[in-house]
Each structure stands twice: as C-alpha cells, then as structure tokens.
Amino acid sequence: xxxxxxxxxxxxMEEIFSDLLAEPSNQFEGFVRMSATDFELLLSRxxxxxxxxxxxxxxxxxxxxxxxxxLRYLATGDxxxxxxYLFKMSHQVISNIVRECCAALISVLKxxxxxxxxxxxxLQKESNFADIFxxxxxxxxxKHVVMVSPIxxxxxxxxxxxxxxxxxxxxxxxxxxxxxxxxxNKGRISDGGVFRDSVLFEKLQKxxxxxxxxxxxxxxxxxxxxxxxxxxxxxxxxxxMKPFPGQHPEGSMQRNFNRKLxxxxxxxxxxxxxxxxxxxxxRKPIALQPNEASRVVxxxxxxxxxxxxxxxxxxxxxxxxxxxxxxxGEIINVGTxxxxxxxxxxxxxxxxxxxxxxxxxxxxVRNKFAEHFMDMN
Length: 377
Description:
DDE Tnp4 domain-containing protein, metal-binding, elongated, nuclease, 46% helix, HARBI1-like, alpha+beta, two-stranded antiparallel ribbon, 10 strands
C-alpha cells in the first residue's frame, strides 16, 4: 500500500468535506455540482446501497465519501489515477466505487426519467410548446457517445465517423428534462436502425404511448395528430415531424416550417449541451467498457433531471442565462453553456442525416403544419 493511502483515516476523509463546506464561495456546490441539501438527500437514498460493513482489519470508506468520489468523477471526467491523489485511495478502489455508486444512483433516481402516462400528462407537455409549435409533445435526438476502443470488441462499436461509440437516444420536454432516455446500442448500428430498435418507436407503433387523440389546429377543421420533432436522422412519420430537405427561399412555406421546427429542437440541443458541460466526463472519449460507459451516461442523465427539478440546486446547475432563451420561436440570448463546452462536441457526436422516402400520410401531415404556420404569419 502506498504511504499516502496508509495515512487515510476517517478524520482525513472528513476534512475534505469540512473544508469545502466552510468556504463561503460555493466551493462545495462546485465540487459536486449540487447543493449540500441535495447531496444529503441523495446520500440518504443511495447510502444503504453502497455502504460497506465495518471490520477490524480496515477502515471502511464511508458512504458519503463514496458518493463524493462518484460525483467528482462525473463532474470532472478525471481519470481514476488522477482522483486517487485527491481522495487517497487506489484507482482500483475508485473504479469499484464509481461502478457501484452509478448503479445505485440509477436505482434510486430511475423515476426521474419517465414518459407521460396518459393524455392529460401529454397535454401538459404540449402546452409548453403551444406558443411555438402547437401539437408538439417534445423533441427527439440521438448522439454517438464516444469511447476508447473496447477490449476484444472488433468492429461492433466502430461507427461511420471512425470512432468507437455507444448510442444515446432521448426525448426532451420544454424544461430541458429527459422524458425518455435509452443508452447502450452499439455504434456500428445504422443511425436509421437505432430509433427503429428503440422502446420509444415500438410503443409508438403499438399505440401504447397514450398520446392525445388528433384534434384540429386553431385555424383548421382537419384533425391533426400530436407529434414529436426531430432532425433528418429520423424517419418522417405521422407522429414525427422533421425538416423539409434541401434549401428553400426566404419566406417560403418550407423555410418557415423548418424555422419553427428548429426553434423547438433547441430544447434537446440544450439538454445534451448542459449535461455535457456540467458532467465533464462526457467532454472526452470515455475510457470504460461499454456496459460501464452506458451506466455512467445514464447516471448523468438521471442526475441532470434531478438537478433541473430541484428547488435547491437548479440555480447552481443551470444559473440564469445558462440555457438558451427563446421568445416567439427565436433565440434571443445564447446560453453560456456553449462557452463552457467550447469547440466541438466532446464525447457526443451527432447522428447522420439520412435521405428516406416518406409515407404519403406523413408528408400530408407535415404540409398541413407548414400551411398552418404560413397562415399564422
């Protein structure tokens, strides 16, 4: 055992917390990305799952330190070997702690991400988008989460951008919170096939999402379905709207529709952007095996929703001006998260746009929405 590890005692581990909490300049909040109140709340829920039995042979690492190690890893993306100098424990121990604690976080926070269960809950989501895109229920997007080459994986995770990745698929509401999140698909699967293999698409096909029944728009008499918006990586579907392909002249029906759709898709761009800016483990290729990388990404997504919905930590996690400000379908203030992540996408890579022949019904639905927006101008 290294000498610095031999000097680790309960007192030295507690000193880290007492020093951070004693600082008046929100040092503790910056260390774990949340308020002390929410840290204690999380600890009360995950503590029983990660606590280890005390023995006479060694000093047990307290649950509080285990949670702090994990949150610090997610917040900074520092390697386990780097964190061992701060916490005075071996990188092997840190590896086990992060794996166990991420699993515990997923277990206790799993209800932070869930789809609306009935028409009324969907209509509440729609009301937040009604001023921009009526009948819109949320924005869908997917990202390749880049990893270091997995051991003995061959080309299973090798994607078209010549990197190794797993795929994150998400549905986001107006509050930049995830309503659905699926992570772990192999990067080599075609981007078109990823969505068709997802639970969300399966539920959509089986009409088991309990979406509201089609209703006329404010200026029409034709029943229009409630929809999700997406980019050109996704198929056009009666319940999924994507932009008109190609370039269109200013003032045209197609360009006006594309602008409206893009103003809604900003929410999913902000959700991914804020999450990767705050949990910097997502700012570079993840040096873990696919199962562990999936667990880390899901833990980040659940913590994102937990902090966005927290009255104690929302202003710490996303202070005023951190997300894009949208008014009348236009961005009037660019969120400061874009400065935090700088150039590039970090571990996130966009999915490829795919040309498809769309069903006639879906095309008619998109045209009806485009006509509605032109009439409203």
